[in-house]
Amino acid sequence: MLGLLAAAMVALPTVLFILESNKSVLITQTEAQGIAPVRTVLRLVQLVQQHRGLQAMRLNGFQDVRPEQEAKYAEADRAVATVEGQVHRLDDRSVNVAWQLIREDWFTLSNDITRQSLSAEASFKAHTELIVRLLKLELLIADLFKLRRDPEAETYFLIDAALVRAPALREMLGQLRGAGSGILVERTVSLAQRMLIRSRSDRALDYYDSIDDDLSLAMAGNEALRDTLAEVVQASRNAGAQVLQLAHEQIIAPEQLRYPALEYYRLYSETIDGQYRVSELMFDQLSASLMQRASRLTRIANMLMGAIVLLALLAVVLGWRIVRSVTAPLGVALELARAMTAGAADKIAVTQAIAGGDLTRDLVPAAAPAPAFAPDEIPHDEVGELLRSVLRLNEVQRSLDLAFGQMTAALRANSAAESARDWLKSGLNELSDLMRGEHETGPMAEQVLQCLAHRLQAQVGAFYLYDAAAQQLYLCASYAHTRRKALGERFRLGQGLAGQAALERCCICIDEVPPDYVSIASGLGAAAPRNVSAVPLLHGDTLVGVLELGAFHAFTEAELEFLERARDSIAVGFDANLSRQRMRLVLSGRTAT
């Protein structure tokens, strides 16, 4: 029985440690899951780059590319919808904010393309700015899945080459393609244009060198990776050297430009497409490497678990043999052992419950037994050795009990923290969903205010928007708010709690609210709230509005943190909404004219 108890008490914390180590497997699997959304974004980057080149050729007079340009535009538009679905499934605030800006840029660019209102230079610039945003989004998604924090050198350098260096190289080649073909169409080149082409060529060579360095380090200990990538990477490097030399010989060096623009465009397009094929190979190898690592870590964890089981069985057998060697006359030692093992079944039940996820249970450490003998009275024979062993075992057991209790407390604290993060995240996601899409400002403000009141258990609230022209706050929406005492619905900056919060641009919380400040009324009566908070809504340095919420209870730190984080997304959402409203007014005015 003693051997079984000792084995259980030693094995359980060890098993929990192994389970914790399995997080490495989960991290690797998370990295592997991030490859698909990253590739989706890079596919959109490729389509936008291709459309940029075709649009530039068309605007420079090559109308033969119009069918291909229109087809590429439609394909890019479908890819935008695909990426948007991926972004919504990721459900990350920073990724969503970045994507909203990209969607607005794409919408603006699409309208300009439809109206044919862009020059070749303006079209190239707008496409390039959109691509820069997309590449930042790609890195945000990669960081969300911890891809750029990979712990192993082989996959780390492969990730750096595929996710960072290669996209930057392709964009640099794309800019050389667009700028160079435009110059060859005009048949004239300025000194500034020559210097720009040279600078971009040098940067492209630097990217090629960086990719070579990364892949050399990644392939150093991996023969299979070298066999797969070495030849195609060298071929891609050779093709890149040829087109960069072409730019030097046909644009930078000559006095007169005679090289065909379409041929220049074709050669650069083939080189860029070749780079994309190399990246696809790198992504395939990266996925395979991550899955192999996850399998390896799983096997190691299973082997450790098997070793623990064997050690536990060995401890049981050893304890059984020790107990069998004890003779009947050792009554004192037996009684002491029985006293020490009292409640062992309850301890095992508690440990099993905690291991199963029930963190409400607590393990009571074993009590130190009252010594039956003074230390100098313990005999120096088999009985004395057994007593000393039992006492030492009791000390070990108490240490394990205390360590297990500390571990349970830590798990309980982590669970509570995770619940708080989930509450915060779900609330922010709910607000984001309310503000997504086209809405009238008033109804959207009411929905946001209702959402905040329900989540924070606030009983009264008001939503003020800032009129920059009048430099006043005006009431846009309210929740259970009773207008009285002829109080106006407009406030100047510094006037009232909302005006003061807008002026100082920081949250103001009042714990002791005057009885006649505001009341919360129903059919059964009315009462003043205990706590009122005014929260300014800021988008960058721009004041968008003020939220004012009142409740019978004081807002907790978690609720105040939610308000602090929610106000940023609310400010962004309403700033964008008001911008769209102003744009519609401008467009309707132009239409009427």
Can you give a write-up of this model?
- The protein has 593 residues and is α+β, with helices and mostly antiparallel strands.
- The chain has 3 domains: 18-300; 326-426; 437-592, Beta-Lactamase (2-Layer Sandwich).
- Helix content is 72%, strand content 8%.
- The chain is built from 15 helices and 8 strands.
- It has helices at residues 2-21, 23-59, 66-90, 93-115, 120-144, 153-186, 191-219, 223-252, 261-325, 331-340, 344-355, 382-435, 441-456, 496-504, 557-592; strands at 460-467, 472-479, 490-492, 508-510, 520-522, 525-527, 531-539, 542-551.
- Strands 3-2-1-8-7-4 form a 6-stranded antiparallel sheet. The protein has a two-stranded antiparallel ribbon with strand order 5-6.
- Helix 5 packs antiparallel against helix 6.
- The longest helix is centred in the middle third of the chain and has 65 residues, at 261-325.
- The termini are far apart.
